[in-house]
Amino acid sequence: MALDQIVDGLSEVSCDVLVIGGGTAGPMAALKAKLKNPKANVVLLEKANVKRSGAISMGMDGLNNAVIPGYATPEQYTKEITIANDGIVDQKAVYKYAQNCFEIIEELDSFGIRFLKNENGDYAVKKVHHIGTYVLPMPNGETVKKALYRQLRRARILISNRYMATRLLKSSDGRIAGAISVNTRTAEMLVIKAKAVILCMGAAGRLGLPTSGYMFGTYENAANSGDGYAMAYHAGAALANLECFQINPLIKDYNGPACAYVAGPFGAYTANNEGSRFIECDYWSGQMMLEFYNELLSGKGPVFLQLKHLHPDTISEIESTLHKVERPTRGLFQQGRGVNYRSESIEMHISEIGFCSGHSASGVFVDDNARTTVPGLYAAGDMASVPHNYMLGAFTNGSVAGIDAMEFADSHDFAEFDAADVAIERDRVMAPTAREDGIPPNQIEYKTRRLVNDYLQPPKVTRKYELGMRRLAEAREDMQERMIARNAHELLRALEVQSIMDCADMAAHASLYREESRWGLYHWRTDFPEKDNENWFCHTLLSKRDGKMTSEKRAVEPYVVPITDDEKDLYDKQRIRASA
Amino acid sequence: MPLASYQTSVPVIVDDAKCIADKGCTVCVDVCPLDVLRISDMTNKAYMAYDECWYCMPCEADCPTGAVTVNIPYLLR
Ligand SMILES: Cc1cc2nc3c(=O)[nH]c(=O)nc-3n(C[C@H](O)[C@H](O)[C@H](O)COP(=O)(O)OP(=O)(O)OC[C@H]3O[C@@H](n4cnc5c(N)ncnc54)[C@H](O)[C@@H]3O)c2cc1C
Ligand code: SF4
Ligand code: SF4
């Protein structure tokens, strides 16, 4: 059979709880759902292969946000994230995470994932954030995926690899009814009926184009093309604060973290070309990214991660972590450029834009039970709106979602969807395969993402946005009328472009709606350069209403942990003041 | 509109002498998150079919015979 030959086919299966995305949050959600009701059927659907999929494909070097008794309290953590996120936080979900995450750490420990301890046997937590201490190294971090996979097998979770979910199904009364997916190697379609669905499809990581021009050289795992955001949107779920983009400080060209969280606690720091520090704190916030951006353009760039002043043994220790887990090709990259950390600093740059709540706050709106605004539909991990969630947030909220979704499934029967919806989706999915002639997906994707860089990347200028939206609409027309896919693999890419295009439209729409500047670089609008608490101290929710993209305000829930006036601006004071 | 094929030097290489795909191994093809590796019909060995690589390493790490080498994609090297 020819490579990735297209096979015509449509089948249907059903389960109690369907989890889509088997990266980090997904496996935990599936596991917890199954443990909640071992008799129920839980399906874990994954575009790649659960063994090695997602952000943690090669493991992680540590937990960025562990709330460990003795080091930090849930109150402190909630306060820190509230301030880091400029106050726009529904604290209940953050507080719940902070209370639950220690239990999840102990559970991960029982799976065989080890966390750094000191001589007394206490967790050796490090300080990276502005105020509190939350970073916990993982000495055998490369084993995370293997350990999770073992648990999934033991619990008899049904895993379907190489199926890309494309749309959600709902009943006429608005309840979730299942999802539609496509086999990425044969193009055969599979409809999965489910009583509850949990979305764990990661960040929208292929939105901007990396400066290298290599489309798959993204910060996020490049399989995360924003399908979850697009699917939630088309299902009518609300998406929160999408204008709060994800932008990260990364190794220039390599486009992976350097990583200040690993090296920082040993004494490494971010410096300008004079070797001077210019930011108070290396924790990734929009305010910190704004200073980073300003420094790059100030004539004092490039910006570097400085570690050559450290003891050679310390550097070797940092090196062995950076080159072994998470993004192990970092070593190969530096070697290729002849960079030795002992004599040279690491040149840094800023990443392409994306949506992500794991690092920022742009995600599908969820409450503290991981419920979206669609009954029976849940979201967890990078794509759900709990801010600054990181890996432990994906595990912890994945767990919350799994348990709540199974309770929902136990008390509801299957919702009925309209067969016509499946037919419409089949036509949409297969359309590029029916054309003899046209534009291949890689060209449409490149152009779309290049437009995102040219017009949507901050600083956000209204006039640029308006032009950008016109250009994107033209690219969308090409995508809808002329895109071709000549085999199943190209069809996978063609479907991903459609998610990317939807995310680009959402990024533009959400950014124009919020008429103020907030979150440092993430939402810096030159036409509205000030923070406007009077009118914009609120979430924005974007959703599809009567086929149209709309945005509305939503009040921030009353705080559980009060923030005093003198604490509010702590993250605004990122720049180190020149000492006289 | 006619299409032209586009030359690209792929980042992942497989040592045919070490690859045991002809004995049924498909590990690297199975684990790749971007699904860009395939077994060649002609040589019965694994190879990179699509230049869409996240230079992440599962293919190299999980290959039972050490046949896979991941390089940094040229554009960002
Ligand atoms: C390079 C890097 C370094 C990081 N370092 C750290 C760190 O040191 N510490 C820390 O705490 N956090 C770190 N993070 C953040 C952390 O890894 C993420 O927040 C977390 O893993 C996200 O989990 P997730 O389940 O939401 O997404 P992922 O783990 O990315 O999983 C998403 C899954 O969905 C699948 N998928 C996507 N679309 C579809 C579809 N249409 N159908 C089916 N499946 C689909 C993908 O293949 C993937 O498996 C890092 C992230 C990156 C990218
Ligand atoms: S994993 Fe190694 S041996 Fe197996 S098919 Fe791939 S290259 Fe060949
Ligand atoms: S490095 Fe990663 S993306 Fe590239 S071929 Fe190997 S597994 Fe696939």
β-strand number of chain A: 17
Percent of residues in beta strands of chain B:
15-25%
**Total helical segments of chain B:** 2
* Reported CATH architecture of chain B: 2-Layer Sandwich
Q: How would you characterize the largest beta sheet of chain B? A: 2 strands, antiparallel
The stretches of 5 or more residues of chain B where confidence is low (pLDDT under 50) are: none
Mean pLDDT of chain B: 96
Mean pLDDT reading of chain A: 95
Span between termini of chain B:
33 Å
| Helix and strand composition category of chain B | alpha+beta
| Biggest interface, residues from each chain | A-B, 40 and 28 residues
Helix content of chain B: 10-25%
- Order of strands, main sheet of chain B, comes to 1-4
**CATH homolog superfamily of the largest domain in chain A:** FAD/NAD(P)-binding domain
Low-confidence stretches of chain A at least 5 residues in length (pLDDT < 50)?
none
Shape of chain A: globular
CATH class of chain B: Alpha Beta
Question: What do these coordinates show?
Answer:
The complex is a heterodimer of chains A (about 575) and B (about 80). Chain A is α+β, with helices and mostly antiparallel strands and about 575 residues long. In chain A, the strands form four sheets. In chain A, strands 1, 2, 5, 6, 7, 8 and 15 form a seven-stranded mixed β-sheet that branches. Chain A has a four-stranded antiparallel β-sheet with strand order 14-9-16-17. Chain A has helices at about 25-35, 75-85, 90-110, 145-155, 225-235, 260-265, 285-295, 310-320, 330-335, 390-410, 420-435, 440-455, 460-480, 490-515, 535, 565-570; strands spanning about 10-20, 40-45, 60-65, 135, 160, 165-170, 175-185, 190-200, 240, 250, 270, 305, 345-350, 365, 375-380, 540-545, 550-555. Chain A is built from 16 helices and 17 strands. In chain A, β16 (about 540-545) and β17 form a beta hairpin. Chain A is globular. Chain B has a single domain (about 10-70), classed as Alpha-Beta Plaits (2-Layer Sandwich). Chain B has helices at about 25-30, 60, and strands spanning about 10-15, 35-40, 45-50, 70. In chain B, β2 and β3 form a beta hairpin. The longest helix of chain B is centred in the middle third of the chain and has 5 residues, at about 25-30. The model of chain B has no long low-confidence stretch (mean pLDDT about 95). The chains are: A alpha+beta (about 575), B alpha+beta (about 80). The interface of A and B includes residues 57, 185, 210 and 253 of A. The structure holds flavin-adenine dinucleotide and iron/sulfur cluster (SF4) (2 copies). One iron/sulfur cluster binds near residues 14, 20 and 64 of chain B. One iron/sulfur cluster (SF4) binds near residues 33, 53 and 59 of chain B.
